[in-house]
Amino acid sequence: MFFRKHTGGTLVWRRLKCRLSRPGSGDSWYYLFVYLGDRGVEESALKSRAIKVAALILAALFTVAGCTSHADTTVVPEEEAPLYTWGEFTGRTITVWGDKDDLSRPYIVRAFEDYQQKTGNVIEVVPLSKVDLDEKVPRAFSSDEEERPDLLLSYGGTNVENLNPDENFYDFTDAPWIDDLTDTALTQAVFNGKVIGLPHGEASVSGTLYNKELFETYHLDIPTTQEEFLSVCETLLQNGVTPVYLPYKEITMLLYQFPMDSFLKEQRVLDGLNDNTLSYADVPEMRKIVQWYKTMSDSGYFGEAYADNDWDGMDEAMQSGEYAMMLCWDTWLYTGYTGDPSNIGIMPAFMGTPENGSFEGPNILLGIANKKSDQLDVTLDLINFMADPCNYNVHYAGVYTAPVFNDQRGSITTPQYMETERLINKLFYNSTAWSRVRGFSQIDASYIQQYMQDELSLESCLQAMNDARLSRLGLQEP
């Protein structure tokens, strides 16, 4: 859609260049002149109104033409004018710290390269290992004498609690782009009632990936209860198929946080864990989660040699037909899978609780500005640039992700999500354990592994996991 403003007196018009797609007939382009309102109306409101009007007109064109075939009447953005103020500085240098993998995401790379080209500023990227993130970053924000980044790429919630956000991070609560964030993205960005960063990452949905062909071959329906899931596992095993690939060696891929989100929706439980009036052993659902791993391993549902499985084996496992399912997120099929994604579906994670299974919402990367930085003004300039639809719609083009911004177009929602959207909406839980439980760490799954190997009892496992969590808060001896 190509915007041109025409004004006559106090009236505002737009010329819209719109594409109408018909399957088998190619694309047709139309120029529409639309009256949108009086001069003085906010530009963002005019643009939103323009898109809606154009969609209605194109739909009407199809009706008048009497077409009976299904058509895509999407209004496609051709170019956009900037919505926010940026590009006011040049010749400056911004230092950015972040996880080395996060810094290599295509939308991050595109954003940084685009900003440098358009402004003449320089972005100095410092990729960090997970050890550096755990040690160097907290040290940097604990003393004014330590070197700090101008911009930190990090996840929010309890992941930044030890960085003293109130004192160190810029407050974006009144930023012009706040209303453009999806509800999920905004939730990720809030800490102590303030918006501490710009969400700018992939928004995936996690559950159980499954091989559609194997389910069809053995006439299996998608389970709707924990018991039905175990029944599916038993049927697969009896037919020589290992039900679930578990990347056991990659501790974080035990993903025990998936089902935790369902019971943490109860504020009393979340508060109890965070103020240390409840422990993991006090939560019945937590017991079910830990016991689920033991049940699955003892029943052979992870396979005989599951202890040798790792991240690198995930791709081959889901292609081979030897495994039917794997806990994961939908976008992995388009970033780490080399097989045909159309053969894979997504269903709820059945991990002991909740009864009908669950899907976990995304953890979205944040761009966090160091408010004590000498480069704060140009860092905020970069943030506004990345938050502007005219830029992020280019940077996210072709990326498989649910929208982070309400005006986001060009990124691609995975077919797996589209096929299962109704069920996802029913069984969706925001990611809470990973970002809201103080002291939580995925590496505490190591105690679940010991329980699976009969090295710890259930009670000892739960106690060890809770003690490890509290030790990170200084409330328990490690």
TrEMBL record:
Q: Which Pfam families match?
A: SBP_bac_8 (PF13416)
Q: Which species? A: Eggerthella sinensis
Q: Which SUPFAM superfamilies match?
A: Periplasmic binding protein-like II
Q: What is this protein called?
A: ABC transporter substrate-binding protein
What the entry lists under InterPro entries is as follows: Bact_solute-bd_prot1, SBP
| Domain of life, per lineage | Bacteria
